[in-house]
């Protein structure tokens, strides 16, 4: 594991200290979990944005519609 040093605003550090004490969890574990959750949320937001962009791309929509038409034909057979 790599060591990482950072500066935090005093108020945020106070909140971190309080919450770590309340939960009886080391501060680094609390930061690690919070960072993992935040990075997962960023990844989800990127994924959602890519689908929104694909929904506006005419070529992709045409391919999707052709695929759905083929799917419906297969179901009917």
Structure report:
The protein is mainly α and 77 residues long. The protein has a domain at 28-76. It is elongated. The protein is 82% helix and 0% strand. It has helices at 10-23, 27-56, 58-76. The N and C termini lie far apart (57 Å). It is built from 3 helices and no strands.
Poorly predicted regions: none
Radius of gyration over C-alpha positions, nearest whole angstrom: 23 Å
Number of strands: 0
What is the helix/strand order?
HHH
Shape: elongated
Which range does the strand content fall in? Answer: under 5%
Calculate the mean pLDDT score and round it.
Answer: 88
Largest sheet: none
Relevant terms:
mainly alpha; 3 helices; 77 residues
How do the strands and helices of this protein lay out in sequence?
Elements: H1 10-23, H2 27-56, H3 58-76
């Amino acid at each position: 594991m790599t060591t990482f040093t950072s500066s935090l605003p005093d108020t945020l550090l106070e909140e971190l200290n309080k919450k770590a004490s309340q939960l009886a969890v080391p501060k680094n574990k609390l930061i690690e979990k919070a960072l993992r959750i935040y990075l997962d949320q960023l990844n989800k937001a990127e994924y959602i944005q890519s689908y929104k962009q694909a929904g506006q791309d005419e070529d992709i929509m045409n391919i999707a519609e052709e695929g759905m038409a083929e799917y419906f034909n297969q179901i009917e057979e």
